[in-house]
Amino acid sequence: RDVILRRLHRRSEACQRVLALSAVLGREFRRDLLASLGKLASDEIADGLDEARASGFVQEHPTRVGHYRFTHGLMQETLYSDWSADERTSWHRRAAELLEALPASSPDTSPAELAHHFFQAAPGGDVHKAIDYAVRAGERAASAAAYEEAVTHYDSVAFDTRPHEGPTAHESRDILRRWQRVEHSRQPSRR
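Request: output the structure for the sequence above.
Response:
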């Protein structure tokens, strides 16, 4: 952690800002979302990402134009942990709102990513949106026969909402029904 922070502090201010905001978006992130999140000028984004790439912090995604990823999860985690809890909540809320504004038909509109950001923003936001997107992510996964992933999304409702207001009784019953359906679908593959 200290080594990463020392390396970061040798970078330009633009690079540090770009990396810090990228860390909120996750191990993989999109350039356009990063620009909108931080309200950064295109030259600041370009310079910051170029320097971050040259210094080994990030790399371009090999198949998705405009997408980047941290070269190591520890780099992203270290940068992310430098934000205070209030700052993280605020940045996640803004990221969720930006993602939610994308057209639903966009391939970059991921219910799982929306659920993640809304869950992280729950102390200062709408936990029921997080629940809704987690259920959508679970349904998407289940329809693709990705049952383990579906269960993970349904479980997130139970585990990620405890410190907050949590699901309503109706939401809980609905999620339990969906979870049971996925578990039933998984049964033949366990034999």
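Residues 169-186 form the longest helix (18 residues).
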